Hints:
With about 130 residues, this protein is α+β, with helices and mostly antiparallel strands.
Amino acid sequence: MKEYKMRRGEHLDERIPDMKAKIEEYFGEVTGTEEHNGHELYVVGDPDNPVFDQILAGTAEYSGKKDKLAVHFEERPAEEVIAEGHADAAADAVDKKNDFLLEATGRDAKARRDSLKRKVEDDADKPDGVS
């Protein structure tokens, strides 16, 4: 499960007022919800794109802090997808993920990678046992 923060001064509920509808627009029908790390996330059990087995997505709410986008994409092995003749679906899956994350966070793939690198570096600077 990955969590993504918004651009400075922006909030997830302003960027995506109806999370369920946005998830369905990008990935297919929401088939239920599932709790993950204390957050209730939407489940797309049978995604439109054959690359995905399942998608979990929703809002990770934190008291006193800005909400984050929480997502988990379960993907099938590339060899299996290509063997079934869905090679084009792989490129489409990458585009769908990136477009969804850009719309939700306002950050492109490069900005998200840079943010993740900073977080990893910050975590490495902390002494052991300190959160």
